[in-house]
DNA sequence: CCTTCAGGTTAACGACCGCTAACCTCGCTG
DNA sequence: CAGCGAGGTTAGCGGTCGTTAACCTGAAGG
Protein backbone atom coordinates (compact mmCIF):
# COMPACT_ATOMS: atom_id res chain seq x y z
CA UNK A 1 0.00 0.00 0.00
CA UNK A 2 1.79 3.09 -1.23
CA UNK A 3 2.97 4.73 1.97
CA UNK A 4 4.55 7.95 0.79
CA UNK A 5 7.82 8.92 2.42
CA UNK A 6 9.14 11.36 -0.20
CA UNK A 7 8.56 15.07 0.11
CA UNK A 8 5.25 16.42 -1.19
CA UNK A 9 5.34 18.23 -4.48
CA UNK A 10 4.53 21.91 -4.61
CA UNK A 11 1.26 21.03 -6.26
CA UNK A 12 0.34 18.83 -3.32
CA UNK A 13 1.35 21.52 -0.85
CA UNK A 14 -0.95 23.95 -2.59
CA UNK A 15 -3.88 21.55 -2.54
CA UNK A 16 -3.39 20.82 1.13
CA UNK A 17 -3.20 24.46 2.17
CA UNK A 18 -6.07 25.42 -0.10
CA UNK A 19 -8.20 22.71 1.50
CA UNK A 20 -7.41 24.02 4.95
CA UNK A 21 -8.14 27.62 4.03
CA UNK A 22 -11.33 26.79 2.12
CA UNK A 23 -12.57 24.78 5.09
CA UNK A 24 -11.76 27.58 7.51
CA UNK A 25 -13.18 30.55 5.67
CA UNK A 26 -15.12 29.26 2.71
CA UNK A 27 -14.20 29.21 -0.96
CA UNK A 28 -15.15 32.81 -1.61
CA UNK A 29 -13.58 33.90 1.65
CA UNK A 30 -10.06 32.99 0.62
CA UNK A 31 -8.00 34.92 -1.90
CA UNK A 32 -5.41 33.43 -4.19
CA UNK A 33 -2.79 35.61 -2.52
CA UNK A 34 -3.49 33.89 0.79
CA UNK A 35 -3.19 30.44 -0.72
CA UNK A 36 0.07 31.44 -2.31
CA UNK A 37 1.38 32.91 0.94
CA UNK A 38 0.53 29.67 2.74
CA UNK A 39 3.00 27.78 0.57
CA UNK A 40 5.63 30.49 0.43
CA UNK A 41 4.97 31.86 -3.03
CA UNK A 42 2.81 34.77 -3.84
CA UNK A 43 -0.46 35.18 -5.60
CA UNK A 44 -0.25 34.57 -9.30
CA UNK A 45 2.54 32.04 -8.93
CA UNK A 46 -0.23 29.51 -8.37
CA UNK A 47 -1.17 29.77 -12.01
CA UNK A 48 1.97 27.79 -12.92
CA UNK A 49 0.30 24.79 -11.25
CA UNK A 50 -3.43 25.31 -11.70
CA UNK A 51 -5.47 26.99 -14.41
CA UNK A 52 -7.49 28.83 -11.79
CA UNK A 53 -8.88 28.94 -8.30
CA UNK A 54 -11.91 26.89 -9.31
CA UNK A 55 -9.67 24.11 -10.56
CA UNK A 56 -8.13 23.69 -7.11
CA UNK A 57 -11.53 23.23 -5.53
CA UNK A 58 -12.61 20.86 -8.29
CA UNK A 59 -9.53 18.70 -7.91
CA UNK A 60 -10.02 18.59 -4.15
CA UNK A 61 -13.66 17.57 -4.30
CA UNK A 62 -13.26 15.05 -7.10
CA UNK A 63 -10.26 13.61 -5.29
CA UNK A 64 -12.17 13.23 -2.03
CA UNK A 65 -15.19 11.56 -3.58
CA UNK A 66 -13.01 9.30 -5.69
CA UNK A 67 -10.83 8.21 -2.79
CA UNK A 68 -13.85 7.47 -0.61
CA UNK A 69 -15.47 5.38 -3.31
CA UNK A 70 -12.27 3.55 -4.27
CA UNK A 71 -11.52 2.70 -0.67
CA UNK A 72 -15.05 1.42 -0.12
CA UNK A 73 -14.89 -0.76 -3.22
CA UNK A 74 -11.57 -2.20 -2.08
CA UNK A 75 -12.95 -3.00 1.37
CA UNK A 76 -15.97 -4.62 -0.18
CA UNK A 77 -13.78 -6.79 -2.42
CA UNK A 78 -11.41 -7.75 0.41
CA UNK A 79 -14.17 -9.08 2.61
CA UNK A 80 -15.87 -10.77 -0.29
CA UNK A 81 -16.53 -14.51 -0.32
CA UNK A 82 -17.82 -14.57 3.24
CA UNK A 83 -21.50 -14.41 2.45
CA UNK A 84 -24.39 -14.22 4.87
CA UNK A 85 -25.14 -11.70 7.53
CA UNK A 86 -21.90 -12.25 9.44
CA UNK A 87 -19.90 -11.39 6.31
CA UNK A 88 -22.04 -8.33 5.72
CA UNK A 89 -21.42 -7.18 9.27
CA UNK A 90 -17.69 -7.43 8.73
CA UNK A 91 -17.97 -5.38 5.56
CA UNK A 92 -20.09 -2.74 7.30
CA UNK A 93 -17.56 -2.49 10.12
CA UNK A 94 -14.84 -2.07 7.54
CA UNK A 95 -16.75 0.67 5.73
CA UNK A 96 -17.37 2.50 8.98
CA UNK A 97 -13.76 2.20 9.96
CA UNK A 98 -12.60 3.55 6.61
CA UNK A 99 -14.94 6.51 6.79
CA UNK A 100 -13.84 7.30 10.34
CA UNK A 101 -10.18 7.16 9.36
CA UNK A 102 -10.89 9.60 6.60
CA UNK A 103 -12.95 11.90 8.81
CA UNK A 104 -10.31 11.98 11.50
CA UNK A 105 -7.28 12.32 9.23
CA UNK A 106 -8.65 14.77 6.66
CA UNK A 107 -10.96 17.06 8.57
CA UNK A 108 -10.69 19.97 6.15
CA UNK A 109 -11.62 17.75 3.24
CA UNK A 110 -14.63 16.38 5.10
CA UNK A 111 -15.73 19.93 5.71
CA UNK A 112 -15.32 20.93 2.09
CA UNK A 113 -17.01 17.80 0.92
CA UNK A 114 -20.53 18.88 1.81
CA UNK A 115 -20.04 22.61 1.94
CA UNK A 116 -18.61 23.87 -1.31
CA UNK A 117 -20.02 21.47 -3.86
CA UNK A 118 -22.20 24.15 -5.41
CA UNK A 119 -19.21 26.31 -6.28
CA UNK A 120 -18.16 23.84 -9.00
CA UNK A 121 -18.67 23.99 -12.74
CA UNK A 122 -21.65 21.95 -13.86
CA UNK A 123 -19.54 19.10 -15.28
CA UNK A 124 -17.35 18.72 -12.20
CA UNK A 125 -20.34 18.93 -9.94
CA UNK A 126 -22.06 16.15 -11.83
CA UNK A 127 -18.98 13.98 -11.56
CA UNK A 128 -18.67 14.55 -7.83
CA UNK A 129 -22.32 13.86 -7.25
CA UNK A 130 -22.11 10.67 -9.26
CA UNK A 131 -19.19 9.45 -7.17
CA UNK A 132 -21.01 10.38 -3.98
CA UNK A 133 -24.12 8.57 -5.12
CA UNK A 134 -22.18 5.39 -5.88
CA UNK A 135 -20.59 5.59 -2.45
CA UNK A 136 -23.97 5.96 -0.77
CA UNK A 137 -25.54 3.14 -2.77
CA UNK A 138 -22.68 0.85 -1.86
CA UNK A 139 -23.32 1.56 1.81
CA UNK A 140 -27.06 1.11 1.36
CA UNK A 141 -26.59 -2.37 -0.08
CA UNK A 142 -24.36 -3.46 2.77
CA UNK A 143 -26.62 -1.95 5.42
CA UNK A 144 -29.63 -3.75 3.99
CA UNK A 145 -27.77 -7.05 4.15
CA UNK A 146 -27.10 -6.48 7.83
CA UNK A 147 -30.58 -5.09 8.50
CA UNK A 148 -32.99 -6.63 5.98
CA UNK A 149 -35.97 -5.08 7.78
CA UNK A 150 -34.95 -1.67 6.44
CA UNK A 151 -36.70 -0.45 3.33
CA UNK A 152 -34.44 1.04 0.71
CA UNK A 153 -35.49 4.68 1.29
CA UNK A 154 -35.15 4.25 5.04
CA UNK A 155 -31.73 2.69 4.59
CA UNK A 156 -30.65 5.57 2.39
CA UNK A 157 -31.81 8.13 4.93
CA UNK A 158 -30.06 6.18 7.66
CA UNK A 159 -26.82 6.13 5.70
CA UNK A 160 -26.93 9.88 5.14
CA UNK A 161 -27.61 10.42 8.82
CA UNK A 162 -24.72 8.21 9.85
CA UNK A 163 -22.48 10.19 7.51
CA UNK A 164 -23.61 13.25 9.40
CA UNK A 165 -22.68 11.53 12.63
CA UNK A 166 -19.25 10.42 11.43
CA UNK A 167 -18.52 13.74 9.75
CA UNK A 168 -19.13 15.60 12.99
CA UNK A 169 -15.48 15.26 13.93
CA UNK A 170 -14.61 18.81 12.87
CA UNK A 171 -16.94 19.98 15.64
CA UNK A 172 -15.33 17.82 18.29
CA UNK A 173 -13.02 20.10 20.21
CA UNK A 174 -10.96 22.42 18.07
CA UNK A 175 -8.01 21.70 20.33
CA UNK A 176 -6.96 18.39 21.81
CA UNK A 177 -9.49 18.55 24.62
CA UNK A 178 -11.18 15.40 23.39
CA UNK A 179 -10.12 11.83 24.11
CA UNK A 180 -7.38 10.20 22.07
CA UNK A 181 -7.84 9.28 18.47
CA UNK A 182 -8.37 5.60 19.18
CA UNK A 183 -11.07 6.24 21.76
CA UNK A 184 -12.84 8.71 19.52
CA UNK A 185 -12.76 6.27 16.62
CA UNK A 186 -14.19 3.48 18.75
CA UNK A 187 -16.92 5.73 20.13
CA UNK A 188 -17.95 6.87 16.67
CA UNK A 189 -17.91 3.30 15.42
CA UNK A 190 -20.16 2.10 18.22
CA UNK A 191 -22.58 4.97 17.71
CA UNK A 192 -22.80 4.33 13.98
CA UNK A 193 -23.63 0.68 14.51
CA UNK A 194 -26.10 1.58 17.22
CA UNK A 195 -27.77 4.13 14.98
CA UNK A 196 -28.21 1.60 12.18
CA UNK A 197 -29.55 -1.01 14.57
CA UNK A 198 -32.03 1.46 16.00
CA UNK A 199 -33.08 2.53 12.54
CA UNK A 200 -33.94 -1.07 11.74
CA UNK A 201 -35.77 -1.67 15.03
CA UNK A 202 -38.98 0.21 14.37
CA UNK A 203 -40.62 -1.49 17.34
CA UNK A 204 -38.74 1.12 19.39
CA UNK A 205 -41.39 3.67 18.46
CA UNK A 206 -43.18 3.44 21.78
CA UNK A 207 -42.97 7.18 22.23
CA UNK A 208 -46.16 9.14 21.89
CA UNK A 209 -46.08 11.96 19.37
CA UNK A 210 -45.48 15.22 21.19
CA UNK B 1 -47.53 29.62 22.45
CA UNK B 2 -47.40 32.62 20.10
CA UNK B 3 -48.61 31.11 16.85
CA UNK B 4 -48.20 33.95 14.41
CA UNK B 5 -50.98 34.45 11.91
CA UNK B 6 -50.26 38.04 10.88
CA UNK B 7 -48.15 38.84 7.85
CA UNK B 8 -44.40 38.85 8.31
CA UNK B 9 -42.70 42.22 8.46
CA UNK B 10 -40.34 43.25 5.71
CA UNK B 11 -37.49 42.76 8.14
CA UNK B 12 -38.53 39.16 8.71
CA UNK B 13 -38.90 38.56 4.99
CA UNK B 14 -35.35 39.79 4.47
CA UNK B 15 -33.97 37.55 7.19
CA UNK B 16 -35.75 34.51 5.82
CA UNK B 17 -34.57 35.03 2.27
CA UNK B 18 -31.07 35.89 3.38
CA UNK B 19 -30.93 32.66 5.36
CA UNK B 20 -31.99 30.66 2.34
CA UNK B 21 -29.49 32.34 0.04
CA UNK B 22 -26.61 32.15 2.52
CA UNK B 23 -27.31 28.46 3.01
CA UNK B 24 -27.43 27.83 -0.72
CA UNK B 25 -24.37 29.72 -1.85
CA UNK B 26 -22.45 30.78 1.21
CA UNK B 27 -22.22 34.18 2.85
CA UNK B 28 -19.61 35.56 0.47
CA UNK B 29 -21.38 33.97 -2.48
CA UNK B 30 -24.48 36.13 -2.15
CA UNK B 31 -24.65 39.80 -3.02
CA UNK B 32 -26.87 42.34 -1.33
CA UNK B 33 -28.57 42.95 -4.64
CA UNK B 34 -29.71 39.33 -4.71
CA UNK B 35 -31.07 39.50 -1.20
CA UNK B 36 -32.93 42.64 -2.09
CA UNK B 37 -34.31 41.12 -5.28
CA UNK B 38 -35.56 38.13 -3.30
CA UNK B 39 -37.89 40.38 -1.31
CA UNK B 40 -38.84 42.66 -4.17
CA UNK B 41 -36.70 45.66 -3.35
CA UNK B 42 -33.32 46.34 -4.77
CA UNK B 43 -29.84 46.39 -3.36
CA UNK B 44 -29.23 49.30 -1.05
CA UNK B 45 -32.83 49.41 0.10
CA UNK B 46 -31.79 46.79 2.61
CA UNK B 47 -29.86 49.43 4.50
CA UNK B 48 -33.13 50.91 5.73
CA UNK B 49 -33.54 47.74 7.80
CA UNK B 50 -30.03 46.56 8.60
CA UNK B 51 -26.77 48.41 9.13
CA UNK B 52 -24.99 45.99 6.83
CA UNK B 53 -24.76 42.54 5.37
CA UNK B 54 -22.82 41.25 8.37
CA UNK B 55 -25.63 42.33 10.68
CA UNK B 56 -28.10 40.07 8.88
CA UNK B 57 -25.87 37.06 9.36
CA UNK B 58 -25.25 37.97 12.97
CA UNK B 59 -28.94 38.31 13.76
CA UNK B 60 -29.64 34.99 12.08
CA UNK B 61 -26.98 33.08 13.96
CA UNK B 62 -27.68 34.65 17.33
CA UNK B 63 -31.38 34.03 16.78
CA UNK B 64 -30.86 30.38 15.95
CA UNK B 65 -28.63 29.66 18.92
CA UNK B 66 -30.91 31.57 21.22
CA UNK B 67 -34.05 29.83 20.07
CA UNK B 68 -32.45 26.41 20.38
CA UNK B 69 -31.28 27.14 23.90
CA UNK B 70 -34.54 28.72 25.01
CA UNK B 71 -36.56 25.82 23.68
CA UNK B 72 -34.34 23.32 25.40
CA UNK B 73 -34.60 25.14 28.71
CA UNK B 74 -38.37 25.22 28.40
CA UNK B 75 -38.53 21.51 27.67
CA UNK B 76 -36.28 20.81 30.62
CA UNK B 77 -38.50 22.85 32.92
CA UNK B 78 -41.73 21.30 31.63
CA UNK B 79 -40.59 17.76 32.35
CA UNK B 80 -39.12 18.76 35.68
CA UNK B 81 -40.26 17.14 38.91
CA UNK B 82 -40.19 13.64 37.53
CA UNK B 83 -36.78 12.64 38.81
CA UNK B 84 -34.94 9.40 38.21
CA UNK B 85 -33.88 7.81 34.99
CA UNK B 86 -37.40 7.54 33.58
CA UNK B 87 -37.84 11.30 33.92
CA UNK B 88 -34.47 11.89 32.30
CA UNK B 89 -35.46 9.68 29.41
CA UNK B 90 -38.57 11.76 28.86
CA UNK B 91 -36.51 14.94 28.85
CA UNK B 92 -34.01 13.48 26.41
CA UNK B 93 -36.82 12.43 24.09
CA UNK B 94 -38.22 15.92 24.31
CA UNK B 95 -34.85 17.49 23.51
CA UNK B 96 -34.39 15.20 20.54
CA UNK B 97 -37.86 15.96 19.30
CA UNK B 98 -37.29 19.68 19.58
CA UNK B 99 -34.02 19.52 17.71
CA UNK B 100 -35.57 17.40 14.96
CA UNK B 101 -38.47 19.82 14.58
CA UNK B 102 -35.99 22.61 14.18
CA UNK B 103 -33.81 20.69 11.73
CA UNK B 104 -36.78 19.72 9.58
CA UNK B 105 -38.54 23.08 9.65
CA UNK B 106 -35.58 25.41 9.33
CA UNK B 107 -33.09 23.62 7.12
CA UNK B 108 -31.35 26.76 5.90
CA UNK B 109 -30.75 27.91 9.44
CA UNK B 110 -29.34 24.54 10.43
CA UNK B 111 -26.97 24.78 7.52
CA UNK B 112 -25.86 28.28 8.43
CA UNK B 113 -25.52 27.36 12.03
CA UNK B 114 -22.30 25.39 11.64
CA UNK B 115 -21.06 26.82 8.39
CA UNK B 116 -20.79 30.58 8.62
CA UNK B 117 -19.97 31.18 12.25
CA UNK B 118 -16.46 32.37 11.43
CA UNK B 119 -17.77 35.21 9.29
CA UNK B 120 -19.00 37.03 12.41
CA UNK B 121 -17.46 39.90 14.31
CA UNK B 122 -15.55 38.72 17.36
CA UNK B 123 -18.22 39.85 19.83
CA UNK B 124 -21.12 38.22 18.01
CA UNK B 125 -19.13 35.06 17.49
CA UNK B 126 -18.41 34.84 21.20
CA UNK B 127 -22.07 35.28 22.02
CA UNK B 128 -23.14 32.58 19.57
CA UNK B 129 -20.52 30.18 20.83
CA UNK B 130 -21.59 30.78 24.39
CA UNK B 131 -25.20 30.00 23.56
CA UNK B 132 -24.14 26.90 21.66
CA UNK B 133 -22.01 25.76 24.58
CA UNK B 134 -24.88 26.16 27.02
CA UNK B 135 -27.09 24.15 24.70
CA UNK B 136 -24.53 21.37 24.46
CA UNK B 137 -23.94 21.28 28.20
CA UNK B 138 -27.65 21.05 28.84
CA UNK B 139 -27.79 17.99 26.58
CA UNK B 140 -24.71 16.51 28.20
CA UNK B 141 -26.29 16.66 31.63
CA UNK B 142 -29.47 14.96 30.49
CA UNK B 143 -27.60 12.31 28.51
CA UNK B 144 -25.49 11.48 31.53
CA UNK B 145 -28.59 11.02 33.63
CA UNK B 146 -29.93 8.53 31.12
CA UNK B 147 -26.54 6.86 30.61
CA UNK B 148 -24.52 7.28 33.80
CA UNK B 149 -21.75 5.01 32.46
CA UNK B 150 -20.72 7.77 30.05
CA UNK B 151 -17.82 9.95 31.11
CA UNK B 152 -18.33 13.64 30.60
CA UNK B 153 -15.94 13.98 27.62
CA UNK B 154 -17.47 10.92 25.99
CA UNK B 155 -20.96 12.30 26.54
CA UNK B 156 -19.94 15.60 25.02
CA UNK B 157 -18.50 13.90 21.95
CA UNK B 158 -21.62 11.79 21.67
CA UNK B 159 -23.84 14.85 21.82
CA UNK B 160 -21.87 16.58 19.07
CA UNK B 161 -22.09 13.47 16.96
CA UNK B 162 -25.82 13.15 17.44
CA UNK B 163 -26.17 16.79 16.40
CA UNK B 164 -24.32 15.82 13.24
CA UNK B 165 -26.79 13.01 12.75
CA UNK B 166 -29.87 15.16 13.34
CA UNK B 167 -28.50 18.03 11.26
CA UNK B 168 -28.02 15.75 8.28
CA UNK B 169 -31.54 16.52 7.08
CA UNK B 170 -30.38 19.03 4.48
CA UNK B 171 -28.59 16.14 2.76
CA UNK B 172 -31.67 13.94 2.72
CA UNK B 173 -33.12 14.28 -0.76
CA UNK B 174 -33.24 17.80 -2.13
CA UNK B 175 -36.69 17.00 -3.50
CA UNK B 176 -39.49 15.07 -1.86
CA UNK B 177 -38.01 11.68 -2.70
CA UNK B 178 -37.71 10.84 0.96
CA UNK B 179 -40.43 9.46 3.23
CA UNK B 180 -42.92 11.80 4.84
CA UNK B 181 -41.98 14.20 7.55
CA UNK B 182 -43.39 12.08 10.35
CA UNK B 183 -41.55 8.97 9.26
CA UNK B 184 -38.31 10.86 8.88
CA UNK B 185 -38.69 12.40 12.32
CA UNK B 186 -39.33 9.02 13.92
CA UNK B 187 -36.38 7.46 12.11
CA UNK B 188 -34.04 10.20 13.23
CA UNK B 189 -35.35 9.97 16.77
CA UNK B 190 -34.77 6.24 16.94
CA UNK B 191 -31.28 6.59 15.51
CA UNK B 192 -30.35 9.29 17.99
CA UNK B 193 -31.46 7.18 20.93
CA UNK B 194 -29.69 4.17 19.49
CA UNK B 195 -26.51 6.13 19.00
CA UNK B 196 -26.52 7.33 22.61
CA UNK B 197 -27.24 3.85 23.90
CA UNK B 198 -24.41 2.41 21.84
CA UNK B 199 -22.06 5.14 23.01
CA UNK B 200 -22.74 4.12 26.60
CA UNK B 201 -22.37 0.39 25.93
CA UNK B 202 -18.62 0.15 25.62
CA UNK B 203 -18.80 -3.62 25.96
CA UNK B 204 -19.77 -3.51 22.29
CA UNK B 205 -16.10 -3.05 21.38
CA UNK B 206 -15.62 -6.68 20.42
CA UNK B 207 -14.23 -5.66 17.07
CA UNK B 208 -10.53 -6.16 16.49
CA UNK B 209 -8.64 -3.05 15.41
CA UNK B 210 -8.21 -3.08 11.67
C1' DC C 1 -52.40 72.19 2.98
C1' DC C 2 -47.98 71.80 4.65
C1' DT C 3 -44.67 68.90 7.03
C1' DT C 4 -42.53 64.81 8.20
C1' DC C 5 -40.73 60.53 7.83
C1' DA C 6 -40.49 55.60 6.67
C1' DG C 7 -39.06 53.20 2.95
C1' DG C 8 -37.83 53.19 -1.29
C1' DT C 9 -34.93 54.64 -5.77
C1' DT C 10 -30.45 55.28 -8.87
C1' DA C 11 -25.60 56.70 -9.30
C1' DA C 12 -21.29 56.19 -7.99
C1' DC C 13 -17.14 55.42 -5.08
C1' DG C 14 -13.51 52.67 -3.28
C1' DA C 15 -11.78 48.34 -2.17
C1' DC C 16 -10.88 43.82 -3.32
C1' DC C 17 -10.18 39.90 -6.17
C1' DG C 18 -9.18 36.65 -10.01
C1' DC C 19 -6.41 36.63 -13.63
C1' DT C 20 -3.05 38.11 -17.37
C1' DA C 21 1.14 40.24 -19.13
C1' DA C 22 5.69 40.97 -19.04
C1' DC C 23 9.78 40.06 -17.07
C1' DC C 24 13.41 37.61 -14.28
C1' DT C 25 16.38 33.65 -12.79
C1' DC C 26 17.94 29.63 -12.10
C1' DG C 27 19.44 24.56 -13.34
C1' DC C 28 19.76 21.55 -16.83
C1' DT C 29 21.34 19.91 -21.31
C1' DG C 30 23.38 19.59 -26.14
C1' DC D 1 28.59 28.32 -22.95
C1' DA D 2 24.28 29.12 -25.38
C1' DG D 3 19.58 28.06 -25.02
C1' DC D 4 15.56 27.00 -22.78
C1' DG D 5 11.90 25.70 -19.97
C1' DA D 6 10.13 25.46 -15.12
C1' DG D 7 8.78 28.29 -11.70
C1' DG D 8 8.89 32.37 -9.83
C1' DT D 9 8.23 37.85 -9.56
C1' DT D 10 5.55 42.61 -9.84
C1' DA D 11 2.25 45.71 -12.20
C1' DG D 12 -2.04 46.29 -13.57
C1' DC D 13 -6.66 45.45 -15.82
C1' DG D 14 -11.59 44.50 -15.45
C1' DG D 15 -15.28 43.16 -12.88
C1' DT D 16 -17.81 42.66 -8.66
C1' DC D 17 -19.31 43.95 -4.25
C1' DG D 18 -20.56 46.51 0.07
C1' DT D 19 -21.67 50.81 1.17
C1' DT D 20 -22.87 55.79 0.89
C1' DA D 21 -25.05 59.93 -1.11
C1' DA D 22 -28.65 62.25 -2.98
C1' DC D 23 -33.10 62.21 -4.34
C1' DC D 24 -38.14 60.66 -4.61
C1' DT D 25 -42.84 59.36 -2.91
C1' DG D 26 -46.95 58.46 -0.53
C1' DA D 27 -49.38 58.17 3.74
C1' DA D 28 -50.16 60.08 8.41
C1' DG D 29 -50.89 64.15 11.56
C1' DG D 30 -51.86 68.73 13.05
Question: What are its keywords?
Answer:
homodimer, 210 residues, mainly alpha, Tetracycline Repressor, domain 2, 8 helices, elongated, DNA-binding
Which second-level CATH architecture of chain A applies?
Answer: Orthogonal Bundle
Q: Name the CATH class of chain A.
A: Mainly Alpha
Task: Report the CATH topology name of chain A.
Answer: Tetracycline Repressor, domain 2
First-residue to last-residue Cα separation of chain A: 52 Å
Question: What order do the helices and strands of chain A follow?
Answer: HHHHHHHH
Regions with little confidence, pLDDT below 50 for 5+ residues of chain A: none
**Total beta strand runs of chain A:** 0
- The tally of domains of chain A stands at 1
The biggest beta sheet of chain A is recorded as: none
Whole-angstrom Rg of chain A = 19 Å
InterPro entries (chains A, B): Homeodomain-like_sf, HTH-type_TetR-like_transc_reg, HTH_TetR, KstR2_TetR_C, Tet_transcr_reg_TetR-rel_C_sf
Domain HTH tetR-type (chains A, B): 8-68
Keywords (chains A, B): DNA-binding
DNA-binding region (chains A, B): 31-50
Amino acid sequence: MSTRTDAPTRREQILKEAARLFAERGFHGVGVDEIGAAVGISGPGLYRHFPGKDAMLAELLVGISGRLLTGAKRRLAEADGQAGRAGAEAVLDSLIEGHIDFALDDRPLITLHDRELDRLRESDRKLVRQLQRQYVELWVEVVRKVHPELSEPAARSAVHSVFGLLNSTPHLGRAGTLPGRGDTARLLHRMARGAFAAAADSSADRLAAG
